[in-house]
Specification:
The complex is a heterodimer of chains A (174) and B (461).
Chain A lengths: L15 E5 L5 E5 H4 L3 H8 L9 E2 L5 H19 L8 H14 L4 H14 L2 H15 L4 H8 L6 H13 L1 H4 L1
Parallel strand pairs in A: 1-3
Antiparallel strand pairs in A: 1-2
Helix pairs in contact in A: 3-5, 5-6
Chain B lengths: L18 H8 L4 H8 L3 H9 L2 H4 L8 E6 L8 H9 L8 E4 L12 E2 L15 E6 L2 E6 L11 E2 L1 E6 L4 E4 L7 E2 L2 E10 L7 H4 L7 E10 L4 E8 L4 E4 L4 E2 L8 E3 L5 E3 L2 E7 L9 E9 L9 E10 L1 E7 L5 E7 L2 E7 L14 E8 L3 H5 L3 H4 L3 E3 L5 E6 L2 E6 L6 E6 L3 H4 L6 E5 L2 H27 L1
Antiparallel strand pairs in B: 1-2, 1-28, 2-3, 4-5, 5-7, 6-9, 7-8, 10-11, 11-12, 12-13, 12-14, 15-17, 16-17, 17-18, 18-19, 20-21, 21-22, 22-23, 24-25, 25-26, 26-27
The chains are: A mainly alpha (174), B alpha+beta (461).
Protein name (chain B): F-box domain-containing protein
InterPro entries (chain B): F-box-like_dom_sf (IPR036047), F-box_dom (IPR001810)
Pfam family, one (chain B): F-box-like
Chain lengths: 174, 461
């Protein structure tokens, strides 16, 4: 999936677009990166977002948008390369390392990110975050899920009922 | 469905995500993980039990059809394969599950070995052939490892499993039957809800608990049919005497439609005709009825001639009102006959009159794509309770709801590789109402929690 990084090989002529977050912060970014969003891609193809206009994104705040763009900028070269047949193992490993670190963040940011990825239709980011959130639940006991996701502890009565239920449907909880 | 924000308090930030986003996350979890998430707090429990449609949201039409099971590698009795199989101590060549495009995210989206869902460390399911499926339970004929595997006739052993719950069951040898000396005909997967007349039982998770297997087999000439019953609790087979016997001058009986029985009102039913070429009407139709028994009981078996003649591809099913119906094809029309209710009910199945209840023209849009495809090669499958038929045509899967929509819908194409090998044509549709199942399992807990909270509220007041 990855391609050689073009961070330093920027040809300077790349088209830029401006995105405006819900709290009115302006982000200037390469059209190629913003086009990772299926939603933005159409607008950009239509010539939108250039010059002083900017594309307003009323559902995404600036903290989330900067994070989203960090992802897009990193992934844009690989995406532009399509199937990336000449991607080396090193590039792929680098992108994987980036992804792993990228989602190593506070839960509330994860939830904002997946919402933004969903609204902006950024397939890769959406599945990256979904995988991270799923991993926080996968293979855990209800108590561990509560701890990980920060749910409050149940009342003793709730706990007793739950234990009885899990005994009754043991197969589901083995 | 939307819980008030205050109720989300115990559910964490994850609960703030809209359902469509939650589904994206849930599609990466096994059903067991969802169970465990559901019992973390009242809010999550309510999400899963309040609206069983929630989990169905990702599915399209034909939500009950989750996919198909098939065996890609058929076991051939050659020395090499026998030796390999004897040596195998791990899972290999288990049946493959191919999900429907709209299948539940928990089972999709790509094809997987059955052993992804059900553990099979000893390789009991190696080379297993899927035979039938009902309420999420898959029935397979296993290839037992025995020293006399060189013999042409092999003993018969069945495996049953539920890919959703990971439950598995392997039967002991079916004594006295060797394959292919006696061919296996019809199968009935019986669940705990089938032998009960209690409505609460029927509409409960008990319908997913395997209790009994009924198998019919026939000899090479099709003159003698035998019925066997297996009880899951006692792990014993009951062999019944020959239930049907045709004289040599008579036309042998032939099982029609699905080999999975219609299990209905305490009995399993299969449809038979006495004509080998179903294209030569009039053909008489018969139902073979085997009572579903309690532990150790010997099911009563009877054959009844129906007051109908068969068209092409006759097919037995239970309609939405729970009555036996036969659908058959006349040209591009599907004719449905339904057994009428009898006063008093119970037992007197055979005497009930049959009426033609539906005549459905297969709309032209399907056949036009393949001029004769629909009529040339197809298999019909029943969905329990849904009365939905799946039509096969070289891999294309069509759905025709005989009860509701008078429309044929194309659901998907099965990969051609399934049909490239003659021996691999045995494709078993897998159906289960997952959301309903899920809600049943959690429903009782929710009811208890709810009651407790009401009690607490009352206490406070």
């Amino acid at each position: 999936m990855a391609a050689p990084e073009s961070g330093d090989g920027n040809n300077g002529a790349a088209r830029m677009v401006t995105l405006i977050s819900s709290d009115n912060t302006r982000f200037e970014v390469e059209a190629a990166a913003a086009s990772l969003s299926q939603t933005l891609q159409l607008t950009i193809l239509d010539g939108g977002g250039g010059g002083g206009d900017g594309i307003p994104l009323p559902n995404v705040d600036s903290a989330t948008l900067s994070k989203v763009l960090e992802y897009c900028i990193k992934h844009a070269p690989a995406a532009a390369n399509g199937g990336a047949p000449n991607a080396t193992a090193v590039d792929r490993a680098e992108l994987e390392r980036f992804d792993n670190e990228f989602v190593n963040i506070d839960q509330s940011v994860l939830y904002s990110l997946i919402m933004a990825a969903h609204n902006l239709e950024i397939e890769g980011l959406q599945s990256l975050v979904a995988k991270k959130v799923a991993d926080m639940i996968k293979g855990k006991s209800p108590m561990e899920i509560r701890r990980t996701l920060g749910f409050p502890d149940p009342t003793p009565e709730e706990q007793a009922e739950m234990n009885a239920h899990m005994l009754e449907y043991g197969w589901a909880y083995e | 469905m939307a819980a008030p924000p205050a109720a989300k308090k115990g559910a964490g930030g994850l609960a703030s995500l809209p359902e469509e986003v939650l589904l994206i996350v849930f599609s990466r979890l096994r059903i067991k993980d969802l169970f465990l998430l559901a019992v973390t707090s009242t809010w999550w429990l309510r999400l899963f039990t309040d609206d069983p449609a929630f989990l169905r949201a990702a599915q399209g039409h034909g939500a009950r059809l989750l996919g198909f099971f098939f065996q890609q590698t058929s076991f051939i009795r050659c020395p090499k394969m026998r030796q390999d199989h004897m040596m195998q101590r791990a899972s290999a060549f288990a049946p493959t599950f191919f999900p429907t495009p709209g299948s539940h995210p928990l089972l999709g989206p790509t094809d997987r070995a059955l052993t992804y869902f059900v553990s099979d460390a000893d390789g009991a399911f190696n080379y297993a052939t899927p035979l039938a499926s009902r309420h999420g339970i898959v029935l397979m004929r296993l290839v037992p490892r025995s020293p006399d595997m060189a013999a042409f006739f092999t003993p018969v052993v069945f495996g049953l499993c539920n890919p959703v719950t990971s439950e598995r069951h392997v039967t002991p040898l079916l004594e006295g039957v060797t394959w292919p000396e006696l061919f296996l005909g019809g199968y009935a997967i019986v669940t705990a809800a089938d032998s009960s007349l209690d409505l609460d039982d029927i509409c409960s998770s008990r319908r997913h608990v395997f209790t009994q297997l009924i198998v019919t087999s026939y000899d090479r000439e099709g003159l003698q049919w035998l019925v066997y019953s297996y009880d899951a609790a006692t792990r014993r087979w009951t062999t019944l005497t020959a239930c049907l016997h045709r004289d040599e001058h008579e036309v042998p009986f032939r099982l029609e439609g699905a080999n999975a029985a219609v299990v209905h009102r305490g009995a399993a039913h299969w449809l038979y005709t006495d004509q080998n070429l179903s294209t030569c009407p009039p053909t008489s139709m018969y139902t073979l009825r085997a009572e579903v028994g309690g532990a150790g009981a010997t099911p009563r078996v009877s054959m009844t001639k129906l007051p109908l003649t068969a068209g092409e591809s006759p097919f037995l099913y239970a309609n939405r009102d729970g009555r036996l119906s036969v659908a058959s094809l006349y040209g591009m029309c599907v004719e449905v006959w339904t057994q009428q209710q009898q006063d008093g009910g119970g037992g007197g199945d055979h005497a009930s009159p049959w009426l033609r209840t539906r005549l459905i023209r297969i709309p032209i849009e399907v056949p036009s794509a393949h001029p004769y495809a629909m009529v040339s090669q197809r298999e019909w499958f029943e969905f329990n309770g849904g009365a939905m038929l799946v039509l096969f045509d070289g891999g294309a899967v069509f759905l025709l709801d005989l009860e509701k929509k008078k429309k044929v819908e194309k659901l998907m194409d099965l990969p051609p590789r399934l049909f490239s090998n003659e021996r691999c044509k045995m494709v078993v549709p897998y159906e289960m109402d997952l959301s309903e199942f899920f809600a049943f399992q959690l429903g009782s807990l929710f009811a208890r929690w709810n009651k407790q909270h009401v009690d607490l509220d009352v206490g406070k007041a």
